[in-house]
Structures
1.
Amino acid sequence: MKKLLFVTTVLFLSCAFSPQKKTKIIFFGDSITELGVKEKPYRGYILELEDKSKAENKSDQYDFIGSGISANKVYDLYLRLE
C-alpha cells in the first residue's frame, strides 16, 4: 500500500511540475504578414500581440511566428503549404 501511495505521489508531482508546451500561433501570409514582425518603420501587429501577451503574463503560453513573404498570392500560399 505504501508503494502504491509513493508511486502515485511521484507521478502526480512529475505531471504537476512538467514544463508546459507553448501554443504556436503562425501568421501565414503575404507582405502585410511579413511587416507584422518588423520593428521599423513601425511595430508590426505580431509584435504588438506579443507585447500584449507579456503584459497579461501569458507570454509563457504562446509562441508567435510570422511567416509572411512579400508578393505572395493565395496560390503561392497554397504551394507553400505542400
Note: The first helix runs from residue 2 to 16.
2.
Amino acid sequence: MCSILSALLYPENVGRVVTISSCMAPYPTAIALRYLRRKMIMTDPNWEHGHYYDKGVYPLDGMCIAREIGSLTYRSGLEWLERFDLRRFNDTIQLTPTFEIESYLQNEGLTFAKKYDPNSLLYIS
C-alpha cells in the first residue's frame, strides 16, 4: 500500500512500482492491529513523544509488544497450530512464557526491537 500511495502522491519521484504483496483495501482487523502496534509504542514511557533520541532512552517494551502483535498477523491460525501445537516451554505455571509460542513471540519482539527504529515503524504503519 505504501508503494502505491508513494507513486500516486509523488509520480515525479517514482519511475515504476513493483508490488509483491497488497490488497485493494485493508480489512478493519488489519487497521485495528496496526493501531494497537502504534499505541504500544506511543504509550511506552520511554517513547518521549518521539524524542527519545536526545533523551538517551528507547521504547523497548512498546517495540517488543508491537512486534509480537505484528508477528501474529504473518501466519494463519492453522500454521501456528502446526508449528507450535500446545507444547509447553515450561511445565511450571507462571506469568512468564509457558507455551512455546509465547517464547517465540518474546524472542521475535526483542530481536526486532533491537534493530528497528520506533518512529519509522509508526510512520509506515
Note: The chain has one domain: 25-124.
